[in-house]
Automatic annotation (TrEMBL):
Residues 24-63 are annotated as: Disordered. It comes from the Bacteria. This is Tetratricopeptide repeat protein. Residues 24-55 have a biased composition (Low complexity). The keyword Nucleotidyltransferase does not apply. Coiled coil: none annotated. Keywords: Signal. It comes from Massilia violaceinigra. Pfam families: TPR_19.
Length: 446
């Protein structure tokens, strides 16, 4: 079923205004019903109390009703007709004369495929509110569709094929000579070639698949990625991720909940298994169209089959602020981290923070540019290794990145990306720098 060109939210607001005008002239004859009565035959509800005798609603009740109505419109516009149906039914229990709610409830039932309920509500609207010709035309559009239901979002696939160059494939140490040993017994060691930076060209292929599930806005997410180096085959990487994402709302808050499970293969062996849950939330604040503020909370568990003492459980509490204009968006983000590992893990538990800023802007008529900077800091709570590296590890990683994307045709684009990474630590063995370049072709929205 195809919908009219306007979005559901804009459409619903316009329709509410259009229907309410003639509805006011009909209120003296319109019966007051509850939501349960609204599904009864029209002749049965005609015996109800006249609306003119109904008690007046207080300002607080009117405000609550409008708040509930706006929440229902938001659910409808975000592709959750089932939630919209529930909220609109509650609204009609409070105010059976809310003409906009009647129409939106009928449309929600039609989008859910509940043809009988939608047809009954369309009939009730025609009898109670004397709708205009434009509204009757819209009702006819939905009736002609057959109310077979529709997906909130279409299935989508995207692929990316790229090639590039990395100056430090293995995150090799910036120092060729390091000091190792216990206090008062430090010795200089010269690192072998395997521990020093190795540069190489690479090829990468990735794909993303999103499949809507049901009418509640749930999304199945699948991601695959394969990275191959020309010479350093030990750093070849394959990864796969499968996740579920679902929108939610309550008490004016909105957001998304995500659960995901992933595998990473490094070289010829399984390197990592990771499970993650993430909750994103948007507070009920009116910041205008140019600002968007959200909060997030995440928990992840990483298992390393061949390096079990590195296993980690990480808690992430973050926030982000988006500043939007007609041609650009700036996103500022930050958060706190807590990493709990096994007792035998070098350095013990860690605490940290992260922050970042990014700018995405339209350049010319089609090109899209992006600039970003991010910083992550970790602090270990005990010495890294007794008799080997007897200091607490402090790690600070800064990354600069930039990209240019040029659309080619309807579904494709070419992209140039560059990154510069500075990993600064108080343990010279782990310090490294890298430069990374990638040119890729991507195709989206299939």
């Amino acid at each position: 079923m195809r919908r009219p060109p306007l979005s559901a939210l804009t459409l619903a607001m316009l329709l509410a205004l259009a229907v309410l005008a003639p509805a006011r002239g009909q209120q003296g004859d319109a019966p007051e019903t509850t939501a349960s009565e609204s599904s009864a035959p029209a002749e049965a509800s005609a015996a109800g109390t006249a609306a003119a005798d109904a008690p007046a609603h207080s300002d607080e009740e009117v405000a609550q009703e409008e708040k509930l109505y706006l929440e229902a419109l938001r659910s409808l516009s975000e592709g959750r007709p089932d939630e919209a149906t529930s909220k609109l039914s509650r609204l009609l229990e409070k105010n059976a004369l809310h003409a906009g709610a009647w129409l939106d409830l009928a449309i929600s039932h039609c989008e859910l495929g509940n043809k009988a309920e939608a047809e009954h509500l369309f009939d009730q609207i025609a009898q109670r509110f004397n709708p205009s010709a434009a509204i009757l035309e819209l009702i006819g559009h939905y009736r002609n569709s057959g109310c077979k239901g529709q997906r909130a979002h279409p299935r989508s696939m995207s692929f990316k094929l790229g090639a590039g160059y990395d100056t430090n494939v293995n995150q090799g140490s910036s120092s060729s000579v390091v000091q190792i040993g216990g206090a008062g017994n430090l010795k200089n060691y010269e690192l072998g070639p395997a521990s020093l930076p190795r540069a190489d060209h690479f090829k990468v292929l990735s794909g993303d698949f999103n499949q809507p599930i049901g009418s509640r806005g749930m999304l199945l997410i699948a991601q695959l990625r394969a990275l191959r180096y020309n010479q350093v085959e030990s750093q070849d990487t394959d990864s796969a991720l499968l996740g579920l994402e679902r929108p939610w709302s309550g008490a004016g808050w909105t957001g998304r909940a995500t659960a995901a499970y992933g595998l990473v293969r490094l070289g010829n062996e399984l390197y990592q298994r990771q499970a993650q849950v993430l909750l994103r939330a948007v507070p009920p604040l009116d910041l205008g169209e140019s600002l968007g503020w959200s909060l997030s909370a995440g928990y992840s568990s990483a298992i390393y089959p061949t390096r079990r003492y590195y296993d980690a459980r990480t808690l992430d509490l973050g926030t982000s602020l988006a500043i939007r204009s007609k041609k650009s968006t700036v996103v500022l983000s930050g958060g706190l981290l807590a990493d709990r590992g096994k007792e035998a893990r070098p350095g013990g538990e860690r605490a940290g923070w992260y922050g970042g800023a990014s700018l995405v802007a339209l350049m010319g008529e089609k090109a899209i540019g992006e600039l970003g900077v991010s910083r992550q800091s970790w602090r270990g709570d005990r010495i890294y290794s007794k008799d080997f590296i007897e200091i607490k590890r402090h790690q600070d990683t800064t990354q600069l990145r930039a990209s240019l994307l040029f659309p080619v045709g309807t579904h494709s684009a070419v992209q140039l990306e560059v990154r510069r990474t500075f990993n600064r630590e108080n343990i010279p063995l782990f310090q490294y720098d890298s430069r990374w370049f990638q040119f890729s072709w991507r195709t989206d929205n299939w």
